[in-house]
Amino acid sequence: MGEGDQVQQLNFFTENTDQELDKVITFLKGIPNFERKLGRILRKSIDEVVNGRYTGRYSIEQLDKTEKTYIGTRVQHMLQHELDLPYGEVMDALVDGIEVDIKFTIGKNWTIPLEADGHICLLISADDNKSIFQAGCLRISSEVLNSGKNRDSKRTINAEGRELITWLVSNGSLPGNALLKLDPEVIKKVYSKKSGQERINELFRSCPGIVFNGAAIESVAMQKDSSKRVRDARNIWLKPEGISIYSGKYDNDKLLEKGLSPLEKDEFMSFYDLESETN
Q1: In the predicted model, what is the mean pLDDT of residues 104-133?
Q2: Domain boundary at 173, 204, 229, which?
Q3: Contact 211, 269 (CB under 8 A)
Q4: Domain end position, chosen among 148, 173, 198
Q5: What is the separation, in whole angstroms, between the first and last Cα of the chain?
Q6: Residues 164 and 194 in one domain
Q7: Which domain holds residue 248?
Q8: Domain check: are 161 and 188 in the same one?
Q9: How many CA within 13 A on the CB side of residue 12?
Q10: pLDDT tens per residue, range 188-205
């Protein structure tokens, strides 16, 4: 049997006889705002493992191998909690009563354990640098896996298997990590400041019009009460320089008046405010 015939046979099986897979896909697609919820889950999972408040880190690339692996564990548990999915007896979760394994990667493929053979996997990947993610479902079998195994006997999905993934989100928008988009010289300048207050001041001074979420603020401040550093930057340090800091929690009405998009509750953005300079 040629590769084309094999793919055709697998497609026939998936499309015509796998009622459990259809139920899982229908259930997940039926979750209101599924793509947006999943994007937020991924953003929060990554930020929690990066742990910028205590480490000053802001990038997955700054993590060691064990920490990178742990992102997948956080994604699994947070996804089950946020989407109200019960724990499975064999696999990670029950989706509409069906055992489903949840697999996450920041790479280009997923590693599938032996015990997932015959079960459905919810496959999720994220690229923080590009602010995108994917999520899809696949029934695992030897036909959809590469023959090579790692030291834990896990195998990756082959080209034929990729063709069989039913994508729930093919090009999702991952809430951005603005620090990853900054010029390296700007990052260097911000982190060269000694105190958390000075770093926050420099961040908003150097990056007008850029939206920073709470995790980014914590990574720069490296303090528990990072929001106080923002308030002090806004009310004491930067106001005399004609710089205004807007908060999604309090200032969306002002942003709308200026014809700008509103921010999320934990987001902040600075502007060189001409009105402040003339008053």
Answers
A1: 97
A2: 173
A3: yes
A4: 173
A5: 79
A6: no
A7: 178-278
A8: no
A9: 6
A10: 999 999 999 999 999 999
Q: Within this chain, do residues 77 and 98 fall inside the same structural domain, yes or no? A: yes
Asked if pLDDT for residue 2 goes beyond 60, the answer is no
Q: 26-82, pLDDT tens digit by residue?
A: 999 999 999 999 999 999 999 999 999 999 999 999 999 999 999 999 999 999 999
**Do 186 and 141 sit in the same domain of this protein?**
no
What are φ and ψ of residue 170, in 5° steps? -95, -25
Q: Locate tokens 């049997």: which residue?
A: 1
Q: Which distant-in-sequence residues (6+ apart) come within 8 Å of 242 by Cβ?
A: 272, 273, 274, 276, 277
Q: What is the mean pLDDT of residues 133-156?
A: 95
Q: What is the mean pLDDT of residues 103-126?
A: 97
Q: Which of 53, 49, 79, 46 is nearest to 67 (CA)?
A: 49
pLDDT bin (cut points 50, 70, 90) of residue 125 is very high
